[in-house]
Write a sequence for this structure.
């Protein structure tokens, strides 16, 4: 077990460094990407449609940085077993390691970008408060949701490769249904119930509550997300362990 954890760390760190060196911009691109997104949507919503104000930039950037961690980790982990067929044929590794590796790499990237987001928020006039100690709790809950969804997709994609086409469209749909561009409180109660089935709505709301509104997050909601995510993690681990030796035959 210890050697597997060490391997996950070393492989994740190696992928992280390789990704940082890829391209002329390297790590700078990780910072530019969410800023470009903010710029595009700010022009569309604030300048063209005259919706929102200056605080919209902070709201957008906070949500986009958080979303990017979720999006990249889930997309990459969903294909992590199929994309490592060469390694799987050379040496035996528990298949659960592959989604863990890409999720760890995505988390390393997020942990570099997030402090810069904090600096930006402070420069915009938002003062740190005691409620900011809740941020690590929100991060842990989000990490659980990432592994639940990414691990489950990694487990089933080898059996149904065509699902890859649905994942891209599904993630795009979740992007627009995660409360990044709208206030969930303005949505009809009947629709709101179904929207909250998307864990990212509650997670993004929690980050905004703590960092921008200076109030404690909805701990009940975070507990529900964590509980459902734990069940998803157990299901993903069960499938990955149950078919551990069969993946080589089907990919």
């Amino acid at each position: 077990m210890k050697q597997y954890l060490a391997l996950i760390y070393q492989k994740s760190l190696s992928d992280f460094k390789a990704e940082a060196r890829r391209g002329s911009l390297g790590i700078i691109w990780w910072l530019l990407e969410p800023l470009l997104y903010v710029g595009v949507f700010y022009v569309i919503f604030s300048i063209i449609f005259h919706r929102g104000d200056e605080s919209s930039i902070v709201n957008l950037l906070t949500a986009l940085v958080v979303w990017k961690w979720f999006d990249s980790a889930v997309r990459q982990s969903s294909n992590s077993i199929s994309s490592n067929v060469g390694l799987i044929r050379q040496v035996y590794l528990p298949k659960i390691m592959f989604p863990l590796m890409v999720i760890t790499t995505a988390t390393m990237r997020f942990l570099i970008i997030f402090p810069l987001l904090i600096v930006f928020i402070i420069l915009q006039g938002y003062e740190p408060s005691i409620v900011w100690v809740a941020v690590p709790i929100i991060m842990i809950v989000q990490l659980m949701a990432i592994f639940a969804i990414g691990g489950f997709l990694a487990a089933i994609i080898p059996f149904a490769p065509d699902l890859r086409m649905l994942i891209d469209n599904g993630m795009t749909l979740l992007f627009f249904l995660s409360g990044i561009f709208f206030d969930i409180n303005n949505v009809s109660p009947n629709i709101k119930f179904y929207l909250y089935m998307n864990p990212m709505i509650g997670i993004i709301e929690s980050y905004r509550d703590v960092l921008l509104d200076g109030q404690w997050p909805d701990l009940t909601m975070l507990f529900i997300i964590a509980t459902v995510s734990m069940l998803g993690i157990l299901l993903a681990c069960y499938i990955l362990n149950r078919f551990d030796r069969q993946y080589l035959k089907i990919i």
Q: What stands out?
A: The chain has a mean pLDDT of 84. The radius of gyration is 19 Å. The chain is about 75% helix and 0% strand.
